[in-house]
């Protein structure tokens, strides 16, 4: 309701005939709702993201807060295919052995050391388990 709302951007009373509501409880003057990073006006035609009381355009929100590739550190787009190793996420083309550069494909065996992926040939056989005995070969 105009005249009763306080703008989340400037803190002033909203007496304009129009206001923008972001999330259920934050209201803004039309002129105050801008991306905190690039200053792009955010209106009913674009997606708005909130973080710590600040509004961001989709591009800046993804760049600043989105999941990034563990190899190249670039953000992902919605059309990117990804590979996961534990809590790391990689672009498909970045999912490569750090030693030989071979691209690792679904089903390939690999080892993850820190952030480095190593193919089976470069990380060697799996370590023997405690209590396991080596079989003698004739």
From TrEMBL:
Record's keyword annotation contains Zinc: yes
Keyword entries, A-Z: Developmental protein, LIM domain, Metal-binding, Zinc
Entry's localization field: Nucleus
Record flagged with keyword Cytoplasm: no
Gene Ontology CC entries for this record: nucleus
Alphabetized Gene3D superfamilies for the sequence: Cysteine Rich Protein
Molecular function via GO: cis-regulatory region sequence-specific DNA binding; DNA-binding transcription factor activity, RNA polymerase II-specific; metal ion binding
Record Pfam families: LIM
Signal peptide limits: none
GO biological process: axonogenesis; neuron fate specification; positive regulation of transcription by RNA polymerase II
Alphabetical list of InterPro entries matching this protein: ISL1/2-like, Znf_LIM
Segments forming domain LIM zinc-binding: 5-67, 68-129
PANTHER family, per the entry: INSULIN GENE ENHANCER PROTEIN (PTHR24204), INSULIN GENE ENHANCER PROTEIN ISL-2 (PTHR24204:SF2)
Name of the molecule in the record: ISL2 protein
Organism whose genome encodes this protein: Rhipidura dahli
Gene of this entry: Isl2
């Amino acid at each position: 309701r105009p005249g009763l709302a306080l703008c989340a951007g400037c803190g002033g009373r909203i007496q304009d005939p129009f206001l923008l509501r972001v999330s259920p409880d934050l209201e803004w003057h039309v002129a105050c709702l801008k991306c905190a990073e690039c200053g792009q006006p955010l209106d009913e035609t674009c997606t708005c993201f909130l973080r710590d009381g600040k509004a961001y355009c989709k591009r800046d929100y993804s760049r600043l807060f989105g999941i990034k590739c563990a190899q190249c550190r670039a953000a992902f787009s919605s059309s990117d295919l990804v590979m996961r190793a534990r809590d790391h996420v990689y672009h498909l083309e970045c999912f490569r052995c750090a030693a030989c550069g071979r691209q690792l494909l679904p089903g390939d065996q690999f080892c993850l050391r820190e952030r480095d992926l190593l193919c089976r040939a470069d990380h060697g056989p799996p370590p023997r388990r405690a209590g396991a005995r080596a079989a003698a070969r004739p």
